[in-house]
Amino acid sequence: MNLTRHHGGAVILLTFAIALLLTIIPLSDGIRALRPDWVALTLIFWCLALPYRVSVASGFFAGLLLDVLTGTLLGQHALALSLIAYVCVRLHQRIRIYPIWQQALTVLLLLILHQLVTLWIDSIIGRPSRPPSYWLQSLISAALWPLVYRLMTALRINFSVQ
Amino acid sequence: MGLVLLSIGLMTVDHREHHLDSVRGGLSVLVYPLQWLVDLPGSTSEWFRESLSTRRELQEENASLRTQQLLLNTQLQKLESLEAENRRLRALLDSSFQVGKRPMLIAGLLSVDMDPYRHQIELNKGTLDHLFEGQPLLDSQGVMGQLIHVGPFTSTAMLITDPSHAIPVQVNRNGLRTIALGTGAIDRLELPHIPDNADIRIGDLLVTSGLGGRFPPGYPVAEVIDVEQDPGRAFSHVTARPRALLDRSREVLVVWPPVLEGPPLPPASPADETGNSDT
To answer: What residues of A are in contact with residue B146 (Cβ under 8 Å)?
Structure first.
């Protein structure tokens, strides 16, 4: 598989750009905290689909951009997303053959890992704790996984990203 | 795994030192197109509204602005004579009082969302407009916050209601000094460490005291809305509502330190009542 030429790097970049856009699009105050974790979902998809192209380094860089965009400590999301990417790449052969609902559960665990790391770092630097509704973000994102998966797979086949 | 160590290192350095400002600045240039794109619908609709408004609307707006300017100018005349008088009286008392013009710049807010658990806003001006870190931010009603990261084109500001923000204030009525802490709620500040017998009442205006040297003295910050005295506790529980329209302003004023001749600004005395504004 490594011998075939790489295709569609632009598509991968574009999906990350769209995920970052969706992360900063203004929402009303009530539902801001429920915004799905688009960047993590995109990263997980590409790590499962093309682990030899998108892996820890991509997660790190996407996380840095996310840090700058959301005004968090530089490296906070970078660390969390690198960890997610690492787990994903390690287990991609196993996760790939799961039925979709089981994949969604795995994604849920990964997203909770993301939020947990963020929370840990925040508490280390002395920021106040967050309300329980904080965890709803992971649930909503995981519930969206089947949709994201179908959409991205269609995209991937359409543009023959390899 | 090297990257994990790298990101931990990055976080430590970012939290404790300021060496990473250039890295963050560079990355902020990289993400500026994204922010610009997200901001685009809002700014274009604004532009459309302005360019499609009718002649009569414009005339009405013009007339109301004219009246407002007349009123403000009249007040300004009084202020100038008051300022001169204040300076004379202070000269009699031999107290040093610095008057200098504070340069200001109007910056627009980018309509992008940041971390929902931090009270931060993104401005469309940066180091190219000579903004610097720690610079205070005002709107027409009061103090809004301060800049925490400044990139070439954009900058991030922390609002006074962020849980990790504190601003030195004093009660305008009697000069009682204290510190107002952010609570994480957009319409509430907390004043801890006020003794039970302190003279503070509902409706008191809190203005910046200028201590700490970051915020200019005498600008309105908040209004006391609740004073709760519990006999079992040493301190009373005081809450205040920020005067600035923190979640509604589209434009903010960035303030520079006054252009002074002579030695740097000494700490303001508690009785300083520059910019006295009634509630």
So the answer is: none
* CB-CB neighbors (< 8 A) of A132 in chain B: none
Give the tokens for residue B4. Answer: 């994990």
Sheet holding B104-108, edge to edge: B104-108, B251-255, B136-138, B143-150, B155-159, B120-123
> Are the C-beta atoms of A75 and B14 separated by less than 8 Å?
yes
B38, containing H or E segment: helix B21-52
Q: Which residue of A has its CA nearest to B23?
A: A74
A10-62 tens-digit pLDDT: 888 999 999 999 888 888 777 888 888 899 999 999 998 888 888 888 888 89
Q: Is the pLDDT of residue B203 over 70?
A: yes
Determine contact, residues B162/B146, Cβ cutoff 8 Å: no
Residue B10 has pLDDT above 80, yes or no: no
Average model confidence (pLDDT) for chain B? 81
The reported pLDDT for the residue numbered B271 is 40
Q: Are B219 and B207 in contact (CB under 8 A)?
A: yes
Looking at residue B266, what is its pLDDT? 45
B40 touches chain A (CB under 8 A): no
Nearest to B116 among A32, A56, A128 (CB): A32
Distance CA B200, CA B179 (A): 13
Residue B267 has pLDDT above 50, yes or no: no
The beta-carbon neighbor of A74 closest among B3, B10, B113 is: B10
For residue B184, the chain A residues in CB contact (below 8 A) are: 128
- With beta carbons less than 8 A apart as the criterion, state whether B149 and B155 touch: yes
Q: What angle do CA B111, B112, B114 make, to 5 degrees?
A: 140
Q: Are A76 and A68 in contact (CB under 8 A)?
A: no
In the prediction, which pLDDT does A111 show? 92
B184 vs A32: CA distance, rounded Å? 15
Instruction: Report residue B142 as tokens.
Output: 């009061």
Please list every residue in chain A whose beta carbon sits closer than 8 Å to the beta carbon of residue B250.
none
Number of residue pairs across A and B with CB atoms under 8 Å?
103
Judge whether A157 is closer than 8 Å to chain B, CB to CB: no
Instruction: Average the pLDDT over B144-158 and give the result.
Output: 89
- Can you tell me the distance from the alpha carbon of B279 to that of B273, in angstroms, rounded to the nearest whole number? 14
- Indicate whether this complex's ipTM tops 0.90: no
Task: Give yes or no for residue B243 having a pLDDT over 80.
Answer: yes
